[in-house]
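Dear U.,

For the methods section draft, I wanted the exact inputs and outputs in one place so we can describe them consistently. I've listed the two proteins in the order they'll appear in the manuscript figures. Please don't edit the token lines directly; just add comments below if something needs changing.

First protein:
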Amino acid sequence: MTSILYEQSTDDINLQTATPHYASVIFSNISSDQAYRELVKVGGYHVPQECRPRHKVAILVPFSSAFHTFFGGVSSMTKKQFVRVNGYSNLYWGWGGEDTDMFWRIRGAGFPMVRYQKDIAKYLSLPHNKIEECKNRNELVRTAIARYSYDGLTTLQYKVISLKFLHLYTHILVDVDPVSNKTSK
């Protein structure tokens, strides 16, 4: 779904940065002053002239910290970086693995990933209903680097059912399996 949102937003606005944000995660202690100092300090992790894919979740409560290969919750990449990693995989159906797959795509494309320090970016995972797990997620994660060049934005297939531009957000309803739905009717 994130790749669909990216593709739709590039059609409608001059998008420069993709910032996927899980609806079930909210920040609990990020300080804008701290974040600004981290972004612009000389030799810092994210100097504006040298933007790198950034995972913004250093700690995810109730967990003690984000694991090393986790790139979910809240993250950001430039438009060029998102295109170079070919967006998110289209093979994850169900919960789990797509954010770790993105970590390996970023590595495979040669980008160093950076993360805020733990005292800057603490997020809270809100209670939410879990969906069924992606049954083959472990195998997909193991093959992420090998697949990223041909699985993602370049193989994205969907049909926009409705597109509504509202005051604070845009509501996009899509059919993610238009080929199967056409043959079954």
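Second protein (the one for the lower panel):
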Amino acid sequence: MADATAVSFTRNPAGLRKALEVLASDTTVVRQKSNAVAHIWIESPLDGQAVSKLFSTHPPIQERIATLKAMESLGPAGE
């Protein structure tokens, strides 16, 4: 929902997709993770934990990238 809203404001699904691809390629390990603030991250800090899928505040980043690619194919505004 947030990604679709961002595309409606920016009219640039490719820009958002590229930003998410940069985040996806980041190998930084977050050592201190808190469920209390996970909802404000751009990507889930809890990924990789078995229980994280049950309480995830974000879809998997690769799924978000795939959705944005599909929006790009709809036209310049992603509509």
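Candidate sentences for the figure legend, describing the second protein: The first helix runs from residue 2 to 10. Residues 2-72 form one domain.

Thanks,
Y.
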